[in-house]
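for the writeup, i need someone to sanity check this before i put it in the appendix. the sequnce is what the collaborator sent (i think, or maybe the updated version? ugh). structure was predicted straight from it, no edits. if anything looks off just tell me and ill rerun, i have time this weekend
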Amino acid sequence: MEQKLEKLLGRLKACGSLVIALSGGVDSSTLAKAASIALGDKAVAITARSELLSADELADAKAMARAAGIRHIIVDARDLDDPQIVKNDKERCYYCKRGRFQKLVAWARENGFAFVADGGNLDDKNDYRPGMKAIEELAPTVISPFIECGWTKADIRRQAKEWGLSVAEKPSAACLASRVEYGLPLTPERLAQVEKAEHILRAVSKGQLRVRHHGNLARVEVEAEAPSGLAHTGAANSFLSQAAPIPDAFEEVIRRRGEIVEKLKGLGFTYVTLDLGGYRMGSANETL
């Protein structure tokens, strides 16, 4: 890690001046801290405010900029003004990333900054990420320092913890649009449904979760890795208790299913289902 950090800081310092695209997640927050160390006031963090970014994520971005000691600017992305993004086909992420980073590049040039940095890491190459194509197209002005310097998500979390960043163990949180089924047009109302539904579920499950929007159906994904070790009895889980221990998150969702269903129906969903496959990154891409 010492060698990787030295390489990263050297790469950032060589930029001379740099804009960090700060989302509030562990990747961009750690990169912002590194840029602050390497470049001081020659680095700035910019967050794109949009219906695709939850209020919690925006609050985290503000807090992480303060923790990193970097100047923070918020710009309005106006993502839903782009019909290609609203269409929400399998290339949505490409159009969104391209539009946002074009805006960041324009801001950088107008304000005398040489480069714009994305927080992508090596693990991002293991999933369908059309947005990475947009980053490559905007090179050499847009760079991905973690990828260039060989950093994985585990490396980033380790360094964030070393620096005492509160997001070190924060679950990954893709934009709200990633929860909406491909082909279902993005609207402020649908994105708000997802944000509110996940806020409700976070009171029940503390690990990774997603509420996937399939029109009138909400598909709930929660972590399904570690069993709770509890004695599972009662009608809520008797149909599963003979097969295998139920993971903690499943146990709690099943126990409070009546409350969850009522609240999610109150948001406009007709059906609420628990995905027995559990949370998995990019499950929407399984249809491609």
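Strands lie at 18-21, 43-49, 71-76, 115-117, 142-143, 209-214, 217-222, 271-274. Residues 6 and 285 are 36 Å apart (CA to CA).
thx in advance!!
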